[in-house]
Amino acid sequence: MVDISRRTMLSTTAAGAAAALTLRGASPAAAQAAPTPAEVNGHDPIPLTWLEGGAPAEVTGGTTWGVPWPRGAFAPGQQFTLTTEAGTQVPVQSWPIGYWPDGSVKWTAHAISGAEPRAGSYRLGAGTAARPAAPVVVKTDGGQVTVDTGVITVAFVRSGEHVVESITRGTTVIAKDGRLVASRQDKPEEPGKSESFTSHVSSVHVEQAGPVRAVVRVEGRHKKGRREWLPFTVRCYLYAGSDAVRVVHTFVYDGNENKDFINGLGVRFAVPMRGEPHDRHVRFAGEGDGVLSEAVRGITGLRRDPGQAVRQAQYQGKATPDPATWDQRVTTRLQWIPSWGDYRLSQLTAHGFEIHKRTGPGHSWIRVDGGRRASGLAYVGGPTGGLAFGMRNFWQLHPTELEITGAATGEAQATVWLWSPRAGAMDLRFYHDGMGQDTYPEQLDALEITYEDYEPGFGTPYGVARTTELTFWALAATPDARRFAALAAANATPPLLTSPPRHNHAAGVFGSWSPADRSVPAKAALEDKLDLMHKYHREQVDQRSWYGFWDYGDIMHSYDGDRHVWRYDVGGYAWDNSELSTDLWLWYHYLRTGDAKAFRFAEAMTRHTSEVDMYHLGRWRGLGTRHGILHWADSAKQVRISNAGYKRFYYFLTADERIGDVMHDLVDSDRTFLVLDPGRKINGGEPFDPDPKALGVGQTTDWGSLAMAWLAEWERGGDPIARTKLINGATTIAALPNGWVQAGVTYNLADGRFNPMTEKSVSVGSLSSVFGLIEVMTELIGLIDDQAVKAKWLEFCRLYNATKAEQKEVTGADWGNLNLRQAYSRATAYAARQLGDQALAERAWQELRTGHAGYPDNHPFGSRRVEGPAVLNPVDEADLSTNASAQFGLAAFQCLALVGEHI
């Protein structure tokens, strides 16, 4: 790979970029001045509500959310105040996470502690923030970092096996020796050689230090002996006055899928046990409000009764009275009552969990109970304190497990298994042997039948990742059943504060969209179709059981009406992997409606597609994988799938640092064109000898995906190369004779410019703008002041669905028989709005209603029920496909926003 520094090139290329374009300013990272107080207009306070409504009983330590602001409203140093609906100030920590080109704040993040009284709604506005009574205190002393929330103190060490050294409440150590555990075997079906690994910390960084919220990032690898693998990043979030530690755990698979079969992956703490076994308690959350309440040594249901007060105390998790006050027929025989020191709740599928317990190693497990879908929280401890530990999306990300061992001894082990040892080995191998597809012609021929782009050696999971959210509560005593159920609910669905759709729209973020509008019958009818379509795809997740460690969050691509199933086993028709911008559709649907179910649907997809569907290590780092039976199976590795634009929504709405990491890593994804030739099969497999000054980067699908990463980095105030390449790319494409449809273009990796051409030629495909190009250009034109870029883009938008004669008149040739014309109705709508052209506006609506390669106006959006014996389980099916739905949704959203008055 050619090594080109993206920083050293600035001295030779940035000056040219600046001369080519006059900006309305730039982010602080671009070394331009922030607005002066006279230039800041301010903004009235805005309402905030909880995503799921009401005031939650518990939160996972605290909550953090993002809010957009109009250009010029606030300077970067602006303080904010938060008040409840009753006018009470709530301590809040605020910081900017996005900037407008003039340096004013575009997005702010805010954090409050769950220890504060919660209200159903709040108001956020400019002002001096209230400080918590006991702010978070972070101390760094040599090799140790400690975070004191005022209730608990959490210690981290910069090296060794412990990700968290200890969690102390007052003077009581609630948990210690927090570490990651993993195990592998060298054969998939039956245990062969097996090895166990534990975390090895390489670095600890304090990312935030209060006063309301502290964030500590721990990085390292899993290690045994001389082998280190499975790199991890663990972020711990702590809030003032809270006894919770929220953990975001990410690991990357960097093994050999033919030899390294993971058969256990977890997070483990040691929990000191105090008191007699009958004063030690175990709790498991079941489905809904269900709670299993047990003691290590039970004294209920015995042949002899210790007394009602004793029995009730144990069941409620309280200290039992002095045994001297019990019925002595029980007191003198306590030694004969078994102590059940080991428990486990195993959720091996999305449809059932089982709880077992035993007295200790070497003895049999007995079945306790079972259920359908556990909330994912357990507790071990007693009246003097204990640890509640859990995992979000517990049943959705099966096979999972919560395990307690040694509770009858002086120290229990509490483990959250992200991959349960009871599930068998994780098998990530390719699903077939190649079937003789040894040459490019054979692979292209096979593509014609299964739609899978296969190539030997490309279907590897090396470099894919998974992120899991966990919560640990260091409790002062065993919680009663009601509070434990509330903790379980918060763990399963962490409460989130949100700003309303109308404010978000008025702030001018995310391009062309508008809040849902049923003000006239035609709009109401279209909104109903959009809701039905979204509801159908969302509910298919549960009906089709699209769950599991590597699968949850994605949905399927196409349907097989003969079998009444989605084409889960047919090549490129299986998992969608962001094809045709499904992620964008789901996020815009949430922005328009503010619907909690829509947010959670999009959130799960973002977590999945940003980790599983793209590479974070190895030769294809920064690339995503085209849709297929396995998320990494297809040989088409592309920036259109790893697209940062699909992740921006979640980052700015939640300030999630992990998603921020992923977007930042994509700033250099244009370097992947040095490693892999996307057109290698089409050009006959000619030797790949890339020229960094003339790479085959397309100015539509490719550049649009790269541009989203640069836009995100620029607005976050990050590496200035992002702004440079974004601007250089747009201006040099606009300078091409035919702009975004010019054929034969080449790209300069050093500065992001497309090389000049003088002769008109045409090359355009239907996929050119359906992976975020339309959306990124809408935003970019609103951020920069370049009439040439605007004019050339409007030319593209006007001509895509125009007549061949119109295309030929402008570009010298017609554009062929283009597909996806319904999808491009939004391009027509954009041109109509910018040009003030009513005829174009009417054309846009006609294109949407005609439904070419999508859904015509008379398309049925309702579903029909199919039951056994035609299917395994009762399901709903509709005449809808994921790609058509995504593009219809995006087109309808933008037509409503841009030319809605012409409906």
TrEMBL record:
Domain PcRGLX/YetA-like C-terminal alpha/alpha toroid: 494-902
Ranges of Basic and acidic residues composition bias in the record: 182-193
Residues spanning the signal sequence: 1-33
Location of region: Disordered: 182-205
Ranges for domain PcRGLX/YetA-like central beta-sandwich: 136-488
Record keywords: Signal
InterPro entries: PcRGLX/YetA-like, PcRGLX/YetA_2nd, PcRGLX/YetA_3rd, PcRGLX_1st, TAT_signal
Location of the PcRGLX/YetA-like N-terminal RIFT barrel domain: 46-125
Coiled coil ranges: none
Transmembrane helix as UniProt keyword: no
Protein name per UniProt: Tat pathway signal sequence domain protein
